[in-house]
Design brief:
The chain has about 240 residues and is mainly beta. Helices cover about 5% and strands about 40% of the residues.
Amino acid sequence: MKTMPRRSGLIAFLMTAACWPAPAGGVEPQDGSGFQPLFDGKTLAGWKAVPAQTASDWSVCDGAVCGRGSADRLSYLVWKDHGLTDFELRLQYRLLTRGNTGIEIRARHDQTGKRPFEGYHADLGHVGIGANVLGAWDFHFARRKEHPCPRGTRLVIQADESARVTRIDNAFSAADVRQKDWNDVRIIAQGNHFQFWINGKRAADFTDNVRQGSLKNGAIGLQLHDKGMVVEFRRIRLRDDSR
């Protein structure tokens, strides 16, 4: 039997490997820059529904976390680490219906009962829902003033709770959304500065200079808001910059 020269064999192997399929949609391999997957593409291991009675709203379908709103209420799927401070979070989402969704960060239990959590909220929704939702930062505070931070703006909350707003050049717009398709989200939390990116464009940005009542650490939660809405999340990975 004629043997293939070693160099030719290596080239043939590499060409074959290049044709192998990529991992399933829900899982992205570690990229060597410190990111760790938070979702295995098969189960909700490490995640918990809050409130507990909304657990049936969350499932895994086709390698993605699937959220289906069963009522007009706040439902969260929360990652197990409740002490996250500085990090970069990356994921993809696909909104298949009209609705209001998003990602809560530095979330902690709201002891007033106003909402399930206090937190900083990167807001998502269907095209047409408005700049105060899609691509905006929303603030879920128990007692503090909740300043608007619409899509395309940079907000600075001063120590005295006053606010200054400026525009972001070349910001993300509704026209940049891939409707009913996968969109890339990037959230960066560094100290009191927070960035929200969608499809490679900065959507909104804020700095919280308030000392009493600012959120120093907390959990990450995916959110459902509306009855009948369907949203999917995949390729959820985190780089913890606090360690």
